[in-house]
């Protein structure tokens, strides 16, 4: 009981302190700050919006906040979040943009002070449940109550707008169907002219697991798969979530394969157009890849376990996938050689795809300006 009272007293004191400071913090509507992926890299929707806004309104003062001290670069207006300039920017900014949360991407407490506009650009169209719809512990819920209150949240298309609103517990008026800035508008035909077909394997992250198991459990024969790639002049690039860890044996098998590579680039979206085929399961990258109208092989190997044990999902898998569904790596090879149902792909694009005619960054800019 004693500890409970102490925690309550602490929270009340913090609330009183923040309320007093809140009244004296002056925010500059021309100073906009950005961060993404827990402040560890310049990527995703905040990064592409940041680049576009430099052209849209050169009069804005744009600052990037990082939590990796090695990325601090004053010449590029990139500040470590605990540096003097970083703190000053977070205290003075009129607008903040994040990919995950103001708690994870910035020094979140500073963005609770004053009338700063908090914009959630998010990092993927939802197939798996997110935010309040996902299973979470007490600490995660506490963080959401305190920090995840946004003036504007971006949705990739109209069909997902209601899902986004419910997941963040906001009215639909706060959800802007602008599409994602990272899905570029210049999606016309681009050729590499090297005669090589690149295939991207990008599975989703599984909560609570760090050791990547989808190769071993579902029959990946690296030698056989690489032979097929070599004979067909194709290359497989493997893009895992940063928290996924390959076994040493898997690493050696990939390193010894002539036509297999691990993609560890900072931003996969920058090169997404180069791939002729995407292999994925529940990753939101599938929604971005729809913009290119290319072949997607669906490989939800562990569907029953994932949908029951992990976060759960928003749609029946048949709504977003194209048969045949691969249940192991042997079936992936079969799917790579099979005829593809592009008519079904067009139906999925019309329902879940982003409108390529929309200038996402321009639309977000105008809406944010209207918040003042």
Number of discrete domains? 2
Specify the overall morphology: globular
Please identify, by name, the CATH architecture of the largest domain: 3-Layer(aba) Sandwich
CATH fold description of the largest domain: Rossmann fold
Give the name of the CATH superfamily of the largest domain.
CDP-glycerol glycerophosphotransferase, N-terminal domain
Family: Belongs to the CDP-glycerol glycerophosphotransferase family.
Protein name: Teichoic acid glycerol-phosphate transferase
EC number: 2.7.8.45
Keywords: Cell membrane, Membrane, Teichoic acid biosynthesis, Transferase
Report on the architecture of this protein.
- The structure is a single chain.
- The protein is an alpha/beta fold and 372 residues long.
- It has two domains: 2-183 and 357-369, Rossmann fold (3-Layer(aba) Sandwich), CATH 3.40.50.11820; 197-352, Rossmann fold (3-Layer(aba) Sandwich), CATH 3.40.50.12580.
- The chain is built from 14 helices and twelve strands.
- A seven-stranded parallel sheet has the order 3-2-1-4-5-6-7, sandwiched between helices.
- The protein is globular, with a radius of gyration of 22 Å.
- The chain starts with a helix and ends with a helix.
